[in-house]
Amino acid sequence: MTKTLDHIDPALLASRADAIADAARELAAFGWTPATSSNFSMRLDHDLAAITISGRDKGKLGRDDIMVVDMDGKAVGSDARPSAETGLHTQIYKRYPDANVVLHTHSRTQSVASRLFASEGRVHLEGWELQKAISGYTTHESVLDIPVFPNTQHMPELEAQVDAWIDSGKPLYAYLINGHGIYTWGRDMAETRRHLEALEFLLGCELDLRRLSP
């Protein structure tokens, strides 16, 4: 049976909302959430997650800008509208039980990289020391592929692309959507922020290499 907000500890929901709002304000200050874009969420329990309400300025979020959804992406205890991309968040929670935070941003670097590498279907990262910032990677000699999925406004298509990558057995720590932005996740906010900041740096390095290589 789907839970209601009555089943959620108000203090837990408030702390998750504060953590999302704090992260969103910081990332907005970096210029990674232009024009109300991007969305952020944190798992509340097995069945529910807190997520940003659609269309809100990510630099000015407070507790009232965060709502609760179930793992089907449906609003719980609210008439507010979650992001159209909510299903991409709940998909990660369903596929990765250890994931407790999902961050999606639209930085200029992420958006340009998604267009540049779309034809290759992935960004191939190898030899960068900062790959070690991604959990599970312990050496720069590793290979980290970030898939670039074609964009669509039909979320089930995007979800199917992500499912196909995971079902193929290939590691997945983040993905880009062509002309759109990046999704990444982690066990907590600190780990997810580290992943996001490392990937932003690594994508910028790859763009510089393409720009500077003869």
- Kindly report how far apart the N and C termini lie: 60 Å
In terms of DSSP E residues, the strand content is 15-25%
Mean pLDDT: 94
Helicity, as a percent range? 25-40%
Based on secondary structure, the structural category is: alpha+beta
Radius of gyration: 17 Å
Rough shape?
globular
Question: What order do the SSEs take from the amino end to the carboxyl end, as H and E?
Answer: HEEEEHEHEEHEEH
Could you list the spans in which at least 5 consecutive residues all have pLDDT below 50? none
Q: Order of strands across the widest beta sheet?
A: 4-3-2-1-5-9-8-7-6
Count of DSSP E strands?
Answer: 9
| Largest sheet properties | 9 strands, mixed
Q: Given the structure, what is the number of helices?
A: 5
Question: What is the strand and helix layout of this fold?
Answer:
Layout: H1 10-29, E1 39-43, E2 48-52, E3 66-70, E4 75-76, H2 86-95, E5 101-105, H3 108-116, E6 122-126, E7 143-149, H4 155-167, E8 174-177, E9 181-186, H5 189-212
Parallel strand pairs: 7-8
Antiparallel strand pairs: 1-2, 1-5, 2-3, 3-4, 5-9, 6-7, 8-9
Helix pairs in contact: 2-4, 3-5
